[in-house]
Amino acid sequence: MAKVTIKMIAEKAGVSRGTVDRVLNNRSYVKADVKERILRIAKEMGYVSQREIHLREREEENKPLRLGVLLPSFGFGPQFHEGVGAGIREAQTELQNANVEILVKMCRTDLPEEAAGLLTELREAGIQGLSVCLPQDPSIEKALREMKEDNIPIVTFNSDLPDSGRILFVGQDILKSGRLAAQMMSRCIRPGEQVLAAVGNMKFDGHRQRFLGFSERMAELGFPSEDLFTVETFNDYRTTLSVIGEALENHPALGGIYMANLSVTACAEAVRASGMEKKIHVICHDINDGIRLLLKEGRVDFTIPQDFVRQGREPLIWLTSYVREKELPDAGMFNDLQILCSENI
Q1: Is the N end or the C end of the chain the one with fewer CB atoms within 10 Å?
Q2: CB 144 within 8 A of CB 131
Q3: Element holding 82 (H helix, E strand)
Q4: Global pTM exceeds 0.85
Q5: Contact 337, 180 (CB under 8 A)
């Protein structure tokens, strides 16, 4: 439908554009009957002044917006929660004058029914957008798809949920980071040596994609699949210490350990206890005080960090933009992968 202009109203009312302009903007004297005719025609034609358009835009911009965040359990690691928490606080500061409220909930366990219940709570609280990092599970994805059907946009971060109906994933290119780890591992180990991949939790798309990238690239580089062993440690210190200790004992040909989980200090302790520190190369992800120290001591060769603060902040900024202006970035993946070692830590 064409925009109604002052010229169109003037033609229908049989007056000049200047007369219409004076009436619509309450300027100068116009005869009562002419004024009444102009106002009636303007209303019938659906005329909206620039001032009204501006006021409506301002009202829409300042309309209360409630966003939800659902985080995984603390088993995901203090480094993750501290970084993401800082990013959420940055978003709150940036959006404080935009009338945006952010509700944050965190799972206490890894049980999917708990996550599904918290999603229901956020939905009932009236959120208009959701930022989420959760494991893949049918009940979780069903709850998220129901949110989408209610026109609640979803942004996943750190670990994706591609079947959830989400509008965007924000985080590191996990597959690429796993491939980068494999490239480095291939340069560290000697011919005939085996590799152990210790994955956190395969239910998280991020952990699974890391391992997939790592194993794919190792195969491309000619590494025999039978010489790549995989264990799942659920980011638990004791479990990691135990399974890596057993692997070192049962596979004397091990030359490298790929830590696609958070318990890197447990891995280093298991290697130290085995007396194989000078033989075993360790490549991991992320950076914290423990990993920083292990790098300096030479007990970890390389790590590929990621920006947790950015992962906490950007979903909320983009959700605000999407809900109010229907705008999204072309991509939310961070492709600027970095490698840290003892020389640049």
Answers
A1: N
A2: no
A3: helix 78-94
A4: no
A5: yes
